[in-house]
Design a protein that fits this description.
By secondary structure, the chain is of the alpha/beta class. Helix content is 33%, strand content 13%. Pfam families: UDG (PF03167).
Length: 171
């Protein structure tokens, strides 16, 4: 399995951070490529993208000043296959990426991603009180995986808050 390259540049408005690439993402080289993953639909329905992108268009997110990365690079069928060691290494690499690239908002696509980075439990949805990297807004959103039991409209409503935060930052 090959890793999926980050889509990242300095001073992004939002850096979306997932657990790790799926097997399908590894095969295609594109983020959130599994058909059951609702990431692209959620971005569009929340107003973060002007239309529903395809995984093959992931690089085009840079035109919107958005980026994509993961806490762990190794592709797996499910996040529960990620080892403690991989999370420990990924936590350090992710903190370094955040420090280097300084996005305005780090949007964690899944509470578990943020739990692994911040080493916290009982995390609310949305903006966190303290940031892992000072100066960056940490925003926790539900995972876009089709395995998540939360209703799509509830997930979209949380992602709409990312859009609201961006609007407030630009005023």
């Amino acid at each position: 399995m090959k890793p999926v390259n980050d889509i990242i540049s300095p001073d992004l408005d939002v850096l979306f951070i997932g657990f790790n690439p799926s097997i399908k993402s590894s095969e295609t080289g594109h983020h959130f490529a599994n058909r059951s993953n609702r990431f692209w639909k959620i971005l569009h329905e929340s107003g973060l993208t002007p239309y529903q992108y395809l995984p093959e268009q992931d690089q085009e997110l840079l035109e919107l000043n958005y980026g994509l990365t993961n806490i762990v690079a190794r592709p797996t069928k499910a996040a529960d296959e990620i080892t403690k060691e991989e999370y420990n290494e990924g936590r350090l690499l992710l903190a370094e990426k955040l420090q280097t690239y300084q996005p305005k908002i780090a949007c964690y696509v899944g509470k578990g991603v943020y739990e692994q980075l911040a080493k916290k439990k009982k995390i609310p949805w949305g903006i966190q009180e303290t940031s892992v990297v000072p100066g960056i807004i940490d925003f926790v959103a539900p995972s876009s995986s089709g395995l998540v039991r939360m209703k799509l409209n509830e997930i979209v409503d949380i992602y709409k808050l990312v859009n609201k935060q961006l609007t407030e930052l630009q005023q």
